[in-house]
Amino acid sequence: MTVRAELQAVTDRIIERSKPLREPYLDRIRRAADDGPHRKALSCGNMAHVTAGCGTADKEAISFTDAGNIGIITAYNDMLSAHKPYETFPEMIRAEARAAGGAAQVAGGVPAMCDGVTQGQPGMELSLFSRDVIALAAGVGLSHNAYDAAMYLGICDKIVPGLVIAAATFGHIPAVFVPAGPMPSGLPNDEKARVRQQFAKGEIGRDELLKAEMASYHSPGTCTFYGTANTNQMLMEFMGLHLPGASFVNPGTELRDALTKAATRRALQITAAGNEFTPCGEVLDERAFVNGMVGLHATGGSTNLILHLVAMARAAGIAITWEDMSDLSSLTPLMAKVYPNGLADVNQFHAAGGLQYMIRELLSEGLLHEDVRTVAGEGLTHYTKEPTIENGEITWKDGPADSGNDMILRPAASPFQATGGLTLLTGNLGTAVIKTSAVKPERRVIEAPARIFHDQADVKAAFNAGELEQDVVCVVRFQGPQANGMPELHSLTPLLGVLQDKGFKVALVTDGRMSGASGKVPAAIHLSPEAADGGPIAKLRDGDLIRVDGEAGTLEVLAEDFEAREAVTADLSANQFGIGRELFTAFRQNVGPAEGGASVLFAAE
């Protein structure tokens, strides 16, 4: 299949830019793979420790045969609904590996925090940094050098990006990512949003709000809106790290268990001991990341991935930029309307044809690279097929050729809009991004006076006092990675939405983040350089006229004396302690800029 020239041009420049990183990376992982099964290098004492906790059959397989041994990295905890199903996965994987003549061991656990719990709370200031902690923790688990392949159990916001960074770092062994699926549909997302705004306006009490929230988030499984967690799952299919069709199968079903067992068998089949050796570092090439970025735009995915993709790629020796993402957005049709971009949830999206339909369509339009390596085999065409159970066995058949609901999912040739849902903004305030897919066209250009805040709590206080009842650009600064870990500011969305619904022109400008579920209110986010680094946002004053133009891709302050002003500083001492923040001082001091992925791991490069 031939890709469009414009898509190939972006890919080629990424390949060229990445050569100083990618070539040494590939050399390293190929030399590591050439060393052969690494258990052979372990001493007898080492091996005794590896197998001491195993049963007799696993001890025999690991110690005295060339059977593949899978290292399981799990993000299980039973507070996160998305990760609760993983409680039973290790035993299922061990049993399936044993039946296939191999073995599996839990190599290590990684933390998994929930942004839904920490929204508007101090713990949110640890959220972005948890991605790099997850990568480090997975690295520790795999450092025992006893595994022929790895299976990664993780779903949510920072967890999959952190696991991908680890998988790329251990790129000489295969990696299969294993989802657990979304919870069944609960309270419709538009109804949940309506109740949140009623609460913000004081029309209902906390009891009514809590009932609505609990009806939305009601059982094990991923939250059903199309936020960062479900965007992660989409990426793992577009980038060839899931089995085809694995992302959106509900937990606790026969098909879900069959997919987990099939992932185990596949992990054993693609080790260096077999004929289909598929090291993760060669799956994660430049074309795979271009495919992931196209998927992000075609689905109207989470803005958080604009940060994560840069860091994920860097771990594989690939240098991608926000400009690459913006150029791909201009080529990619927006094919899906899933909340917050529409009323449907991911279960309805999946039922309408889901990722298999989208990949088929994008391939036919030359908007994806087909000639990629994946854990399912050579070629992205594998991912146009969907899994099914026939006679008790899992099999894959051709996915739908037509959308089951064109209010949710449309062909690439007649999309919801001609371009993707993310736009790069540049101007005298720096570089930012805006998610336009959920913003009505008439609200994508906002010019209004600024109101400056250094804390989201102050925005809420000003709203409650009636001080924002006007056209306004709320500027929330000193929210970048150096200042306080770059928290999401999603808890401001209901307030700003109330002002917008009253007819005011409203926008948000921040060096922080918004949730992957945000979008109704135009928001210029991830502004770089950040205020704590002396960025231009630190020069803004109350009343400055700001223009946020999501159509032209510009972000500017219209003040003649702006360049000559001194940047203000802020007292950030309140960010330094409490709820674990004191443990992350070194992260805040050493983190790289948002444009570089806001990573501690690659900040010095």
UniProtKB/TrEMBL annotation:
<dbReference type="GO" id="GO:0004456">
    <property type="term" value="F:phosphogluconate dehydratase activity"/>
</dbReference>
<dbReference type="InterPro" id="IPR042096">
    <property type="entry name" value="Dihydro-acid_dehy_C"/>
</dbReference>
<dbReference type="GO" id="GO:0046872">
    <property type="term" value="F:metal ion binding"/>
</dbReference>
<dbReference type="GO" id="GO:0009255">
    <property type="term" value="P:Entner-Doudoroff pathway through 6-phosphogluconate"/>
</dbReference>
<keyword id="KW-0479">Metal-binding</keyword>
<dbReference type="InterPro" id="IPR056740">
    <property type="entry name" value="ILV_EDD_C"/>
</dbReference>
<dbReference type="GO" id="GO:0051539">
    <property type="term" value="F:4 iron, 4 sulfur cluster binding"/>
</dbReference>
<feature type="domain" description="Dihydroxy-acid/6-phosphogluconate dehydratase N-terminal">
    <location>
        <begin position="69"/>
        <end position="381"/>
    </location>
</feature>
<comment type="similarity">
    <text>Belongs to the IlvD/Edd family.</text>
</comment>
<comment type="function">
    <text>Catalyzes the dehydration of 6-phospho-D-gluconate to 2-dehydro-3-deoxy-6-phospho-D-gluconate.</text>
</comment>
<dbReference type="GO" id="GO:0019521">
    <property type="term" value="P:D-gluconate metabolic process"/>
</dbReference>
<keyword id="KW-0408">Iron</keyword>
<feature type="domain" description="Dihydroxy-acid/6-phosphogluconate dehydratase C-terminal">
    <location>
        <begin position="408"/>
        <end position="598"/>
    </location>
</feature>
<dbReference type="InterPro" id="IPR020558">
    <property type="entry name" value="DiOHA_6PGluconate_deHydtase_CS"/>
</dbReference>
<dbReference type="InterPro" id="IPR001307">
    <property type="entry name" value="Thiosulphate_STrfase_CS"/>
</dbReference>
<feature type="binding site">
    <location>
        <position position="223"/>
    </location>
    <ligand>
        <name>[4Fe-4S] cluster</name>
    </ligand>
</feature>
<dbReference type="Pfam" id="PF00920">
    <property type="entry name" value="ILVD_EDD_N"/>
</dbReference>
<dbReference type="InterPro" id="IPR037237">
    <property type="entry name" value="IlvD/EDD_N"/>
</dbReference>
<dbReference type="GO" id="GO:0004792">
    <property type="term" value="F:thiosulfate-cyanide sulfurtransferase activity"/>
</dbReference>
<keyword id="KW-0411">Iron-sulfur</keyword>
<keyword id="KW-0004">4Fe-4S</keyword>
<keyword id="KW-0456">Lyase</keyword>
<dbReference type="InterPro" id="IPR000581">
    <property type="entry name" value="ILV_EDD_N"/>
</dbReference>
<dbReference type="InterPro" id="IPR004786">
    <property type="entry name" value="6-phosphgluc_deHydtase"/>
</dbReference>
<keyword id="KW-0119">Carbohydrate metabolism</keyword>
<keyword id="KW-0311">Gluconate utilization</keyword>
<dbReference type="GO" id="GO:0005829">
    <property type="term" value="C:cytosol"/>
</dbReference>
<comment type="pathway">
    <text>Carbohydrate metabolism; Entner-Doudoroff pathway.</text>
</comment>
<protein>
    <recommendedName>
        <fullName>Phosphogluconate dehydratase</fullName>
        <ecNumber>4.2.1.12</ecNumber>
    </recommendedName>
</protein>
<dbReference type="Pfam" id="PF24877">
    <property type="entry name" value="ILV_EDD_C"/>
</dbReference>
<feature type="binding site">
    <location>
        <position position="156"/>
    </location>
    <ligand>
        <name>[4Fe-4S] cluster</name>
    </ligand>
</feature>
